[in-house]
């Protein structure tokens, strides 16, 4: 098995311009990694400070050709091979019960939360295999095992992500590729604070704390961990 740390190669972070993704991108850059971040919404690009090891790529991750282009850019420098992938792209929908919700909502949730992660991972796997292994991290949800009313499409799509993580962990163990998932509840992002202005945020998980877990899962220190669904449901640290 090849030895890899986030700082020894290139890592793709989908959703890297989002509320969680910016913290993850900054943490990985701090390790010395070359970080490739595909973006779709131009308004989000300025959330990241320019850095010599940061490559921003405009891409529609629902398009297979764009996905292949992102992975090709991540893999173009053999001196800094692609060693990691972080799948953070996703979406949330709630508000009505199943019999009141069009099936199009389910299709959209499966596309955002499952299909994009599948497409990007599918494209990345040959590069990870070529360089002797690596680490993949996907984002699930605590709601998959502790559901609440009005979000069946979202919950089902996140349960599917968890199943995908555990399936791939078994399939790619012989290739020294580890696949793990994070299982957050509420993340303390600007968007979530805006959506719930009266909420008590003291127990929400901080993006910087989750970023530390992701950096760990991409590093050699977690070489024994694969197929895990890691709860990241809050912070016990002083704020």
Short description:
This protein is α/β, with parallel strands linked by helices and 239 residues long. It has seven helices and seven strands. The chain has a seven-stranded parallel β-sheet with strand order 3-2-1-4-5-6-7, sandwiched between helices.
Helical segment count: 7
Q: Strand order, biggest sheet?
A: 3-2-1-4-5-6-7
Please state roughly what percent of the residues sit in beta strands, choosing from under 5%, 5-15%, 15-25%, 25-35%, 35-45% or over 45%: 15-25%
Oligomer: single chain
Shape designation: globular
What's the layout of helices and strands?
Blueprint: E1 10-14, H1 21-30, E2 34-39, H2 42-45, E3 54-58, H3 64-74, E4 82-87, H4 103-130, E5 134-139, H5 152-171, E6 177-184, H6 190-195, H7 207-218, E7 229-232
Parallel strand pairs: 1-2, 1-4, 2-3, 4-5, 5-6, 6-7
């Amino acid at each position: 098995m090849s030895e890899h740390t986030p700082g020894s190669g290139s890592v793709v972070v989908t959703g890297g311009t989002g509320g969680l993704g910016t913290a993850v991108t900054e943490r990985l850059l701090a390790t010395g990694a070359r970080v490739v971040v595909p973006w779709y919404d131009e308004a989000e690009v300025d959330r990241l400070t320019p850095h010599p090891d940061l490559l921003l790529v405009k891409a529609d991750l629902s398009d297979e050709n764009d996905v292949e282009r992102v992975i090709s850019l991540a893999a173009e420098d053999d001196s800094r091979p692609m060693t990691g992938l972080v799948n953070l792209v996703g979406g949330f929908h709630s508000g009505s019960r199943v019999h009141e919700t069009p099936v199009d909502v389910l299709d959209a949730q499966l596309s955002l939360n499952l299909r994009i992660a599948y497409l990007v991972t599918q494209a990345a796997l040959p590069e990870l295999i070529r360089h002797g292994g690596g680490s993949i991290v996907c984002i699930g949800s605590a709601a998959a095992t502790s559901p609440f009313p009005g979000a069946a499409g979202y919950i089902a799509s996140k349960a599917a992500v968890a199943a995908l993580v555990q399936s791939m962990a078994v399939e790619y163990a012989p290739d020294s590729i580890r696949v793990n998932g994070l299982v957050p509840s509420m993340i303390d992002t600007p968007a979530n604070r805006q959506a719930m202005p009266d909420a008590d945020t003291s127990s929400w998980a901080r993006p910087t704390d989750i970023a530390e877990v992701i950096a760990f899962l991409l590093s050699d220190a977690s070489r024994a961990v694969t197929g895990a669904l890691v709860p990241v449901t809050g912070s016990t640290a002083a704020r």
